[in-house]
């Protein structure tokens, strides 16, 4: 079989059919390198340039483990900006089609708190947001992260550059210590490595080198 075929992964026929309907004919390089470890439950550090398909590499992992019948925040994705959070949430919603009624909520700054609190009261399976705003919800007690199974730090280099480290550390400590943590980044310099390694447990590292 084609080693880049999604069908090499332990995914259901429904899930594979949905990927096909999204036009995902085969895995990108970072997906081929990451997804077997992600679906195996391992922590992961994945480095690949923008546009390489990192969202599906963690999105498929979150959805694979998610229980739609359990109305708790099981997946949490931290992104540096509102625009990126919206993009990730939209991709997750497309990937989740056919998996039942999966609620993906975005929580980002610049929007009023109260509607976000109301949405959290209604419940969500996956939250995608910026560190500052998620930290605000934690401080108010309006979000419960104690059921998070999969924590994703997306664009970890940019989040660190933007000074979100303390917020991220606070959010991580509100998640269960028994969880899967996935870190995605375009670059992974030593200072970010030192800052983030505490968040991960024995991670697999995968890199897709930029094409020259
Ligand atoms: P990154 O996070 O690495 O910058 P994205 O996850 O945003 O990249 O993906 C870039 C684009 O590629 C998106 O439009 C996404 O829908 C598309 N894409 C991702 N994986 C695949 C795939 N396996 N086949 C076809 N298109 C894909
Ligand atoms: Mg991305």
From TrEMBL:
Sequence motif: Q motif, positions: 4-32
Residue ranges annotated for the DEAD-box RNA helicase Q domain, each copy included: 4-32
The Helicase ATP-binding domain, residue ranges: 35-206
Family: Belongs to the DEAD box helicase family.
UniProt-recorded name of the protein: ATP-dependent RNA helicase DbpA
Originating species: Massilia mucilaginosa
Gene: dbpA
